[in-house]
């Protein structure tokens, strides 16, 4: 996970997971709409998950 991805996930969580798939974007977008903190946490979890890292 790069430094810029972390910064992007703090300000625009759905854009940080843009290349991780449509489902990830939708989940993070819905959580961000519900509240900023859940969206940031979800984005960071998805970015840290080794299953999604290629």
Secondary-structure element order, as H and E?
HHHH
Our count of domains comes out at 1
Q: Could you tell me the radius of gyration in angstroms?
A: 10 Å
Task: Bin the strand percentage.
Answer: under 5%
Structural class of the secondary structure composition? mainly alpha
User: What overall geometry do the principal axes of the alpha carbons give?
Assistant: globular
Mean pLDDT rating: 90
Helical content (DSSP H or I, runs of 4+)? over 70%
- Could you name the ranges where pLDDT drops below 50 across 5 or more consecutive residues? none
Q: Please, how many helices?
A: 4
Largest sheet at a glance?
none
Count of distinct strands: 0
Overview of this protein structure:
By secondary structure, the chain is an all-alpha fold. It has one domain. Helix content is 72%, strand content 0%. It has 4 helices and no strands. The chain has helices spanning 3-11, 13-16, 22-34, 36-48. The model has no long low-confidence stretch (mean pLDDT 90). It is found in: Membrane. The chain crosses the membrane at residues 28-47.
């Amino acid at each position: 996970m790069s430094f810029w991805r972390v910064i992007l996930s703090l300000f625009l969580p759905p854009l940080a997971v843009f290349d991780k798939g449509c489902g990830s974007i939708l989940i993070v977008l819905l959580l961000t709409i519900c509240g900023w903190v859940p969206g940031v946490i979800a984005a960071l979890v998805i970015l840290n998950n080794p299953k999604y890292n290629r």
